[in-house]
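Quick start: read one record
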Amino acid sequence: MRAVVQRVSKASVSVNECGVGKIEVGLLVLIGVSTGDSESDVEYLVDKIAGLRIFEDDDGKMNRCVSDVGGAVLAISQFTLYGDARRGKRPSFDGAARPERARELYEYFVAQIRQRNLRCETGQFQATMSVSLINEGPVTILLDSSKLF
């Protein structure tokens, strides 16, 4: 399972020009599910994301996590995180989980974030979405439950 985590001052997602999720200060998390992922991959990422100290403290050092700053999470499912473009010009998505399994693990991710007492807004699974954000810093972190990076 992969995640692109961006520290934002605001972010929103819409489907067909209708807003479906919106946060102010917090984390925009793009989530990709691979064929071999399980609940333990979700739990690893949730633990990492909830505790990720990428918000500045009073001294300007990245020392605070999303809950320390009263932030929220906007979780967007994005199978293209498993796009493989090493051969040719058209990416292969063979590494991405089938939609049924990806939905299960995405919904489990959202539930686990909410269990951490974090407000979590979402996109719409399998929809074409428009995502807007103001990346603060900018700060963008890549996470992989297989610890590839």
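The longest helix spans residues 99-115.
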